[in-house]
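Students often ask why we bother encoding 3D structure as a string. The short answer is that it lets us treat folding as translation between two languages. Here is a chain of 252 residues written in the first language.
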Amino acid sequence: MSVLLRERRGAVELLTLNRPEKRNALSSELLQALGSALRDVAADSGVRAVVITGADPAFCAGVDLGELSGGARPLDGDGAVVAMREVPQPTIAAVNGACVTGGLELALNCDIRIASERARFADTHARVGVHPGWGMTAILPRVVGAGRAKHMSLSGDYVDADAALRMGLISRLVEHASLIDTAVALAESIASADSSTLQAIKRIYDEDSALLAALARERAGFETARLMLDPAAIAGRVEGVKARGREQAGAS
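And here it is in the second language, the structure alphabet:
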């Protein structure tokens, strides 16, 4: 079974993270497949917009902590996040469930985020003990404001779909059953605009000098921290982080 499903719907490419038994956690295999697919899309003029989602019940639970704590380092993924930032077509994250840490960073690197009522968002980098490196500290405060971003990153608390809509983390909240159709319809609407102008506008947003500087600053910290990464310490935190997530889900 492929860890990444690809479907073309007219001018829209639908990419589905497909490790549902692991809540679509980002293994090295999945990150490599996503990076490869995005590079294919970038080179395909027939694709005018991209939708990224996860196989139910989750969008993405973040980096595969089991793989990471076992000594593997699935933190680059053959340039998946770089490929996402460089793809010229507009990207939409259709968040269908838990969207956590590395999964939240994937969603933040999309141009637009919409979600169903089942979506839940959290940044648990600090609780797991992994330095962010895919844009969390650069993009999240630009989306929700510095105060809310710090609350999410420092507390590790979960944010439900209603709160995410209020704070601007997502731009639309729809019924779960209609999420993908809504995302594809939005992508089709966007794709109907003039392609060269659309991509030029996206490029202006993406090449903001302050954003690029913030991304570089975070990445430098990530590279330093990765040299000191302790898989055993991460393994010791994993179950506590998972249990806390289940507890907060039950309280919401």
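Translate back mentally: The first helix runs from residue 28 to 42. Keep this in mind for the problem set.
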